[in-house]
Amino acid sequence: MSGTVILSEGAEFDHVIQEVSRYIHLYVMPFGKDERTIARIDKRENMYGGNGTVYLIQMFGQNELANNRLAAYMVLLNNGDESGFHTHNARNEEELYVVVHGTGEYRERTGTEGAVRKKVLQKGDITAINSIGYHSIENTGDEPLIMFVITTNNP
């Protein structure tokens, strides 16, 4: 995906892992395979036209699941970091955000010009995003916003 940098080592990678590990245990037990930690971190600047940086901590490798985006942590480390409005219509995907730490503002609308509905999200909240809806998320708190993201694969 364009605009994506894969972090596999270095100071930025270590910083993201250290920050997230303060709040959650990055652990995976794939069926029939050895237990392990994350597969990689994808870094996206100004994701979908949003502000700041979004990190996607990929828990599975490219060919381990039907869709490698099926299970990832979306991390917005700083207040104001955001994923801008986007849709998954072209890929016919639906998405769930499960907030595991922090506070953020979730926004959704129908189409590119529809009325915007907003909701403050905090730990334990879940959103359900259909494939035709547009949505965005912004860290509005003073701590990292960490969400577990489940994306369907419906080709």
From TrEMBL:
The UniProt record lists the keyword Metal-binding: yes
PANTHER family (UniProt xref): CUPIN TYPE-2 DOMAIN-CONTAINING PROTEIN (PTHR35848:SF6), OXALATE-BINDING PROTEIN (PTHR35848)
A Pfam family matched in the record: Cupin_2
Gene3D superfamilies, per database record: Jelly Rolls
GO molecular function, one term: metal ion binding
Keyword list, A-Z: Metal-binding
InterPro entries registered for this protein in UniProt: Cupin_2 (IPR013096), GPI/OXD (IPR051610), RmlC-like_jellyroll (IPR014710), RmlC_Cupin_sf (IPR011051)
Cupin type-2 domain span: 75-150
Metal-binding recorded as keyword: yes
Name this protein carries in UniProt: Cupin type-2 domain-containing protein
Domain of life: Bacteria
